Amino acid sequence: MAALMRFGKLCRIKIRVIGQSSSFKGSPTCLLRRTFSIYGRLSQQTFDSPSDKPQFPGASAEFVDQLEFIQPNVISGIPVYRVMDRKGQIINPSEDPKLSKETVLKFYQKMTLLNTMDRILYESQRQGRISFYMTNYGEEGTHVGSAAALEPSDLVFGQYREAGVLMYRGFPLDLFMAQCYANADDLGKGRQMPVHYGSKELNFVTISSPLATQIPQAAGAAYAMKTLNSNRAVICYFGEGAASEGDAHAGFNFSATLECPIIFFCRNNGYAISTPTNEQYRGDGIAARGPGYGMMSIRVDGNDVFAVYNATREARRRAVAENQPFLIEAMTYRIGHHSTSDDSSAYRSVDEVNYWDKQDHPISRLRHYMTARGWWAEDEERSWRKQSRQLVMEAFEKAERRLKPRPEWLFTDVYDENPTGLQKQQEALQRHLEQYKEHYPLDLYDK
Amino acid sequence: MAAAARLVLRTASGAKVLRAGLGWLGAPIRVPHAAAHFTFHPDPVPTRHGPTQKMNLFQSITSALDNTLSSDPTAVIFGEDVAFGGVFRCTVGLRDKYGKDRVFNTPLCEQGIVGFGIGVAVAGATAIAEIQFADYIFPAFDQIVNEAAKYRYRSGNMFDCGNLTIRAPWGCVGHGSLYHSQSPEAFFAHCPGIKVVIPRSPVQAKGLLLSCIADKNPCIFFEPKILYRAAVEQVPTEPYLIPLSQAEVLQEGSDVTLVAWGTQVHVMKEVAAMAQEKLGVSCEVIDLQTILPWDTETVCKEECFLNLEAPIARVCGYDTPFPHIFEPFYIPDKWKCFDAVKRMINY
């Protein structure tokens, strides 16, 4: 009997129906509105209960005798949480995290330093100095707001447009540049394309090109942290395009069923290369998928660094305390091209881009907040711009002059130890280079 | 039908004959589900690894997993249906013994199972992922090839998923057809960064699986499902390691070399005996064991190309999906291998 009672455990799902149900006459303005709130409570139900309730193991619900399809709600979807308006003014003072001047200045300086580095490295690709680059224009708020809300020991899995997270954690400009230039200082030993950063010390797992592969991995890492009782969380970044991958579905489902302390952070920036969101999904974005997995979910204004901060902070606290995943969909806009291989004027208007750059930018909104408090003004702006540019240029020049890593690093780290077959291949290359050295750019490489 | 008592007779041609306990089903019929195409040859009882116990292949796997969960507090085992013991009983008793946090079911999603396993490994715990049949490993191909295999290299050795081992039942079983018979090791054989291992017996399986788990690289361990019950040996109860990337010469010979792995090793042993008896040909039988990185030294010296007196023969399934009713004709059985030896010495 005890076993049967355990069988009868159900999740209670509360359905509140608001609005008219007279929508079936074909009127385009009438919408059936439903909201679902899922409480995580489990209620015991005896298996042989006399009440006429569904007994299916697969769902907990009431019976209904009217045929009615649930209308997906995309006209008025999940609301966007924000703290500041577009002019950087606090809307609801109780939501202001009231961070110290020092912290807010750090937010601002990290976002602008990233912006400066992006400009210089984008240009350097244009000049053929590096092979490839991806900018973060417009999304600096999502990086800095979320990174600031985490503990340094929390593990970060990213996609490729999260350099600001690494920058906030203190990754030096030298190492950003070293990776982009693939020089001998690169921690990754020159093996990957630019912007595939990683840092063991800063708990930022090395980026890989295939999209969304990090999502189930992040769930696994969070599970391990839970079993190791480490009080660490995992945060996993991805774009709204990557969220279409099967790996995303896998990661969400695993994290919920296996109760992992993880934050899924979706940067919904409007485009996956040229594909706009209305060709990426038909539902209410990514946040609306969360409840389908049994996951706590929220949508935030990604260009409001305080909203991002507040949501991430609370999600982190609860993910670790309650061992459950949280989904944050940060709405933002990709101001730059997808990468240096893309020219976005082919698929979107300059006016659209300008709106976001001028009217709703995370950096300018934070600057308004700071200037309103007398923490920042023209002078500081001017001198910081000069200083940040100088820092970036110094690192840039140093990275350019540095040699590439020694060619023998082509062969190492495939396995923990080089297998015999690979050693033989390495020796063969060495012999080949001795004979044909003038055909190879050996002078650019370390010995 | 499951409840009916059945007597199974073997005819001279090897087809099974079923005599149903229920007379109304009519006269016994012959079915082509191959009577096993091989005879399992157990190895001599190991003496170097302490006390032994009679175990079949799935029990030897359970033993290896039990040893691991016992000695490594970070080890976790997960996959579809592993909690109740697994569809092939490889994880029986482990959840009760070690708890639901260490032996647990995952949702039905192979890309998730492997991706999750990579993450567990990256975070420093020992991950043992089960894919229910090797035939279903393909959704996880991207995670294995693009992620697991390249994790260490692409990160400059800052990160790796060496703590990951993936296990999957493998190979023909008589009636498995397209999707319960596959041997997909060739898809992984050219993927630097992973190791691929296939045992021929319970003693080998436990030692090789423990080596895969201990190995600091992600490993795929294919378990010949037809041997789960059919292969019985005395297996050491304590943990022991059999080294990877070392092929084993099971019998030495001077005329022809036979290389195989998994179930086929037992076929080749029989072929070697037939070749000796019928052709007077002396065969060397080698169990490759590790497919990647494979032991080129033992199998073929670089100079051997000039020393071969006949071209190398590959005897394997045909270039078709694995068929159901045609399995007896499809598989590289001992007669086809014997014929290859015969043609080779007459080249």
From TrEMBL, chain B:
Domain of life: Eukaryota
TM annotation in the entry: none
Keyword terms: Oxidoreductase
Enzyme Commission designation: 1.2.4.4
Catalyzed reactions per annotation: N(6)-[(R)-lipoyl]-L-lysyl-[protein] + 3-methyl-2-oxobutanoate + H(+) = N(6)-[(R)-S(8)-2-methylpropanoyldihydrolipoyl]-L-lysyl-[protein] + CO2
Pfam family, one: Transketolase_C
InterPro entries (alphabetical): THDP-binding, Transketo_C/PFOR_II, Transketolase-like_Pyr-bd, Transketolase_C
Record bears the keyword Oxidoreductase: yes
Cofactor(s), names only, from the UniProt record: thiamine diphosphate
SUPFAM superfamilies: Thiamin diphosphate-binding fold (THDP-binding), TK C-terminal domain-like
GO molecular-function terms, A-Z: branched-chain 2-oxo acid dehydrogenase activity
Location of the Transketolase-like pyrimidine-binding domain: 55-230
GO terms (BP aspect): branched-chain amino acid catabolic process; response to nutrient
PANTHER family associated with the record: 2-OXOISOVALERATE DEHYDROGENASE SUBUNIT BETA, MITOCHONDRIAL (PTHR42980:SF1), 2-OXOISOVALERATE DEHYDROGENASE SUBUNIT BETA-RELATED (PTHR42980)
Descriptive protein name: 3-methyl-2-oxobutanoate dehydrogenase (2-methylpropanoyl-transferring)
Species this protein is from: Paramormyrops kingsleyae
